[in-house]
Write a structure and sequence with these properties.
- This protein has about 180 residues and is an alpha+beta fold.
- It is about 20% helix and about 35% strand.
- The chain contains 3 helices and 9 strands.
- A 3-stranded mixed beta sheet has the order 7-8-9, with helices on one face. A two-stranded antiparallel ribbon has the order 1-4. Strands 2-3 form a two-stranded antiparallel ribbon.
- Helix 2 runs antiparallel to helix 3.
- It is extended and about 70 Å long.
- The two termini are about 30 Å apart.
């Protein structure tokens, strides 16, 4: 059984206590109890699906090749963002009444990637963390070795579930609101 918890902020969140009750049978009796599991959850930043692909910055000499943002080959269509170049707008999709979309192109890069705070261009800290969370999930989905650089934090490139969790935890706890 799962209980949904609405998190208002990222970082550590105390679960608190819950009331368990029953009205069995037919509402004739009401039994209840309070339960405090003493659990603490870690809430990751919400990934920004409009963040696109991670930037093509690499420190590896391994030429395995993985798709990254670039200008060589068509990759996908994404929702239009203010400031996108007019030459990248998918005009045919707009004519087919599919909405305003932007073409995104890719290139091939080596299999090791650095996801850097300075490359996540956004107005505030939370938006940057959302972009980085999306890039972490995308790099993991590519099966790519990646590292994470935040101000005061550097996680060396690696891959796998444990590395993904470590990077998402670093994002969740980065300058965690108090």
């Amino acid at each position: 059984m799962a209980l949904p918890v609405l998190a208002m902020r990222r970082g550590r969140v105390e679960c608190g206590r819950i009331e368990v009750f029953t009205r069995y049978p037919l509402g004739l009796f009401h039994a209840w109890s309070y339960v405090d599991f003493g659990l603490t959850l870690l809430v990751y930043p919400r990934p920004d699906p409009l963040a696109g692909t991670p930037p093509a910055q690499s420190t590896s000499f391994n030429e395995e090749g993985i798709p990254v943002a670039g200008d060589e080959e068509f990759n996908m269509l994404r929702a239009y963002r203010a400031g996108d170049a007019p030459k990248l707008i998918a005009w045919k999709a707009l004519a087919r009444e599919q909405g305003l979309l932007t073409k995104e192109f890719s290139a091939m890069a080596s299999s090791e990637l650095w996801l850097d705070w300075d490359d996540a261009h956004a107005a505030d800290v939370e938006a940057r963390l959302s972009i980085l969370a999306h890039w972490v999930l995308q790099a993991e989905g590519f099966g790519q070795s990646f590292g994470l650089r935040l101000p005061g934090v550097q996680i060396t490139p690696n891959r796998g579930d444990a590395h993904r969790v470590r990077c998402l935890e670093a994002l969740a706890l980065f300058e965690a609101p108090r």
